[in-house]
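ok here's 4-coumarate--CoA ligase, seq below lol
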Amino acid sequence: MGSVPEESVAAEVVFRSRLPDIEIPNEQTLQSYCFAKMAEVGSRPCIIDGQTGASYTYAEVESLSRKAAAGLRRMGVGKGDVVMNLLRNCPEFAFSFLGAARLGAATTTANPFYTPHEIHRQADAAGAMLIVTEACAVDKVLEYAAGKGLPVVTVDGARDGCVDFAELIAGEELPRDEEAGIHPDDVVALPYSSGTTGLPKGVMLTHRSLITSVAQQVDGENPNLYFSKEDVLLCLLPLFHIYSLNSVLLAGLRAGSAMVIMRKFDIGALVELVRAHGITIAPFVPPIVVEIAKSPQVTAGDLASIRMVMSGAAPMGKDLQDAFMAKIPNAVLGQGYGMTEAGPVLAMCLAFAKEPFKVKSGSCGTVVRNAGLKIVDPDTGASLGRNQPGEICIRGEQIMKGTTNSTYFLGLAL
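and the structure came out like this:
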């Protein structure tokens, strides 16, 4: 990964970032951390709906999240409860997630194109007591929710048996002093991961772990992932996946950047949004990179405003990188590596830093700051050095609290 090894006792090799550790303000709530720059960015664009053109400033997003919190509380949501966001990308995803966080509740995120059985299984396992969804998925949950006595909220208009999201946010804001009592180690996000054996498990990410993970990326004098309030991020990757939730929405909020939301990938629509909004940061996954690299619809000038392309969730080889960069020759392209259970980012390309480092093409990046990583022999547990295959062990306050409905926690301490 190109990180700096740190020799310790008994020949243990712990890899660390080439960037210095920083002070991370993780003794607060996630929402207070994300909106810490409100005095600077309150009147600036925060979330832009690429489909409808609706635009919300930082002050409006903060207010709507407080109204969502008050609305969720009227429907019975409180500290320790779980709300399911069964949504494609939309502004209401952010309002609901942040609103639940203000109540000390957690959000479990699910793909609206899952089968009804998959959705019901996750809702049961997570203990969801309310479902926020949309027209494309509502029929998958209505009968289930009625049988369980769960309210259903729809974000795209009224529906029989459901509460309209517009009604949810129509009342007063949740007062600031009523957010008291939330502990940094309370769970705020409950994404499901199939990274272990058996059925997918709910990964318990706390206010502390998500603040730490976002800070490891975008905080510090020389952040590993340099977003600024002048940047415009493309939010195309699904927010129900931890990559987009963490490294796009939460990181974008912390940095004060604008975010343009796309519900689904379409090359023509993507090019139009890049041109219309001057998008500067494009988080992708390799299948999207392949489509853009091969598309005759995309020329080098179409995406000229993009200065950074982030790729994750799967590896990307050098040949694909080279073909893609012919379409965006002025951008920095790099990769990251992570897993939901790690909050999720373990490693990130240092070419994304404010003061960038030269990096090796095809690398998944170096270990994030304020974390330690080692490679161990899976049979003996012995610590391994560079260029030796083994199992990855990671430590840091970004790591999950545990998994739901598990009687034990599997892990190796560094």
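fwiw The longest helix spans residues 58-74. kinda neat tbh
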